[in-house]
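Weekly structure sync, notes
Attendees: PL (lead), two postdocs, one rotation student
Agenda item 3: pending single-chain targets
PL asked that the sequence for the first pending target be pasted directly into the notes so everyone works from the same version. It is reproduced below exactly as submitted, 459 residues in total.
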Amino acid sequence: MQHAHRRVKALWIWLPALSLLLSSCGISTGFYKSLDADVATGDYGDALGTVRDHREAYGDKSSVLYHLDMGLLHHYAGQTDSSTAYLLAAEREIEELYTKSISLEAMSLLLNDNVLPYEGEDFEKVLVNVFLALNFAEKGEEDEAVVEARKVDLKLREYARQYEGKNAYQEDAFARYLAGVLYESTGEINDAFISYRKAHEAYEAYATRFGTTAPDCLLDDLVRTAEQLGFTEDALHYQELGGKAFNRSGLPAGSLVVITYAGLSPLKTEVRSSVSIPDDDGTIHTFQIALPKFTPRYAGSRTYAVNVRRDRDSLVVGSAVTQVAEDVTAIASRVLDDRLALVYLKSGGRALLKFLAAEKAKAAIKKSGGGNESGERSGNTLANILGSLALDIVIGATEQADVRTWRTLPAQFQMSRLMLQPGTYSVGVESSDGGYSLPAEAVTIRAGKTTFLLVDDIR
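Predicted structure, written out during the meeting:
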């Protein structure tokens, strides 16, 4: 009996040390409440300060997330240079983590995936380049923006090779569309047409997988670029699908692309399952497993009306309503579901190893208390209960789902595109539910070029 109590006491002594070990692996999330409050009120300066002040809370294993959050908050704040610096730092880290440490992988099988450096979901890695492209485009650095578009192409090709077409997220329709817009603006019409066509094909898959159809303006873009390249059959094909005929008369038009960030992306939460069965000697036999799950934070259906005027008080010369071009919430949930089999296999195998190790330790506790291999009641029920409970607490502390995610992403990217004659305009944007309004933003349209207006409504 005395030996059993010593074993139980030893287990309780080790619990704080184990908790310290685990806390050093994941993010200390206590500051998230303050961060979310800052974002909800649009106080991006305060939000940046909150993240910066809690740099150590991210830990060494989540350095990528720190740079992603800082990069995107600077983007929302309109500080493009700082945003670009942080996003490029995140991209470099992700590339360095491509080849993972074998020792860390082995440790993750014993503890949990939080001991691994976070390198991002596949769609998050693509969105790094999307935001970099938008940063460069907003500054008028089109060539640099096109470089980011080409990076997206390389990443998507690698995903296709890596997964052999068996993953839900095989293409990024919005990224392809954005690439087409950038190529067209730099005069690379052939590349633009190819990107628009890939976007159209990707949106066909998006409709089934994520419930997102192509923005109406994409067909117009396909008709226009096909006509410019002399691809008459292609132009007629996309006209039959609903695209507008391309009119070459008059001055070459420019375009205004309005991209709205709506709502906040989903969060990963932990779903824990545990089954405990006591035996006649008081020993509790417990099997426990923890899995990640995406939980939506935005359930809105708002769209945004875009009105273009020659100046603030003149009549509207162009209008459009935004359409969902990328549903991050839907993609995140489906991507996680897509690899649940692997998650279950890894988590289930790890849980089984822990269960077997705990059972061996519980058997030792029972034996030290006077039991025997034939299973006779030892009379040390209390020691068995305390010992098995202590072990279950230890195992429970080590079994944690990896719930890290790029939490500052928008829930949706919505967009509209208007073809306009060169000149200066006043653009107003208002949400369909009246919750957001951008009364007037001055934009300049140049012939053959695209101007981007980025609208933040993630609150």
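Discussion points:
- The radius of gyration is 27 Å.
- Residues 2-120+250-457 form one domain.
Action: rotation student to compare against the earlier draft before next sync.
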